[in-house]
Amino acid sequence: MTASGVAPGYLRPLHPLHAILLAFPLPLFLGALLSDIAYSATFHVQWANFASWLITGGLVLGGFALLWALVDLIRGGAARRKSRGIYFVVLLAMWVIGFLNALVHAKDAWATMPEGLYLSVVATLLALVASWMGYSGFQHRETR
Q: Which residues are in coiled coils (predicted)?
């Protein structure tokens, strides 16, 4: 407590189930990126298939994390709305780019390059940012 009776800011962690759901998109999208890199180097079709399955897994589990973030945004107070809103937008952007990437990977393996590789890079970076934001907690300015 400070002299004004206001406690300094604190970090509010994610709910444990939300944290578990958030743990999956980054490694799955990263695996898809690495599979796309392997495909671009070898042109073995199985790498494109691996990427497609990894993207699907990232979308399914990332979708549940996105849904949880939406509910948390709606239920949260006004003090948390801005930071939770940014977190939700990053997760939404990750999911949308991942979905577009899944559509690109649904084409013939040869036709996925280079768009699939670029979308995998963007989806992986967005998953990294979302994970960083989620696991670092959300800072509150002051608490009464």
A: none
